[in-house]
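[Q] Does anyone have a clean structure-token version of this?
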Amino acid sequence: MNTVTPSYDELAGTWTRMHHLGHLQSIAGWDQAANMPPKGNEARAAALSEMAALLHRMRTDAALPVQLQRAEQEPLSDMQRANLREMHRQWRASNALPESLVQRQQMATSRCEHAWRTQRPANDWTGFVENFRPVLAVAREEAELLSQLNGVRKYDALMDRFEPGMTCAQVDQVFGDVRQWLPGLIQQVTERQARETVVAPVGPFDLKAQRALCEQVIRLLGFDFEAGRLDVSAHPFCGGVPEDVRMTTRFREDDFLGSLMGTVHETGHGRYEQNLPRDWLGQPVADARSMALHESQSLSFEMQLGSHPGFVKQIAPLVQQAFGAQPAFDTHNLHQLMTRVKPGFIRVDADEVTYPAHIILRYEIEKPLIEGEIEPEDIPALWDAKMMELLGLDTRGNYSNGPLQDVHWPEALFGYFPCYSLGAMYAAQWFAAMRRAMPDLDARISAGELTAVFDWLRQNIWTQASRWTTDELAIRASGETLNPAHFKAHLQSRYLG
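[A] Here you go.
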């Protein structure tokens, strides 16, 4: 007998239409970053602004609250109830924001990000700040409205967009603990590695050969090129939709490992998207659960698996084929190159030991920035002080490799940065759970049997999508909620033996 659920069915139809429009929006955004000629930016910004307003109008339709209320009374399955929960969450957040704000934000971020592409290489902090002020003003306005709606502090309200339920109190506790042990660990590891002999690779590394190598490794990692592609952009990202995943990377002739491992990182995002539950695509329950969980996938690929000695053994022959044999490409040496720990300016190039320092620095700046305790002109001095404190590096006057290096602030992605380190912690937790379930996991990886990793992630993370809250998903996958102790244990095991 068919169950009658008219209100729920109407809601599902609305969300499917929004998914289709969001598909076009995401591809237009990818094209803006990867292909669009510079003079197309104003027209593209206006088009994306119009699409953002249209989708916002659909999410705030006056009929939705009545339909949501009626659907609650209908005989729904557990999965439908989870879907309805996610619909309600999206509806609440959208209704807090007026359409004019959504449009202003799209225009401000499109302009700021486009200008940032030339301002960063020009070290032009002053020019950047002019475009950044409107972005920040709209972000603060959004934070104020969402904080009033949810009864939380402003930064919590923005972080909730990326990591539902996460609070500053929790992040402060986790990062505060990391702050205690991280500087000592960095010192121990760098002192230990200083006694090792590592052969540096000799370039230049042909860009076409780099791209071919990246595509080989992506295939090794199971990415479906029939449902996605790899392109080039100023800042690597993964976008598109599960049916059409768009990954980008960037290449440098003097460094092939940066592009290779950056691409491995994006492949983790891409495989998560490609393996979301197909039967539910178009519904919010089929969306990736959160950005910390998304980053747990990219970091499971880049750090847990990609920097595993067994995986390096698989790709060393591919590297030799791409660039010719040289001592640096010996498997052991290549692994040493991929696990060098050295404090550096650039977050995306950072090793996994120093990486949390980059995230803590950004979190400790953007939180007071959103809450109005500091202004854009305060950022450089704070950046310089925290960079010296956390990593011992002098960044004075170096805006390109300092506060201009990331695309997140031009795009108003405030609240996203903590997800990177939370994701690294989840990734360590997933692999700890895998090793409990499969004590021979490391031997399997060394033998090139990567499907054990992919099958576990597919079953426990990818196909679960947004069916559960983050805490419930973590418990079902690993037996506990987020436990940063696994991350510390992973770093100590890999780098100190």
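[Q] Thanks! Anything notable?
[A] Residues 6-164 form one domain.
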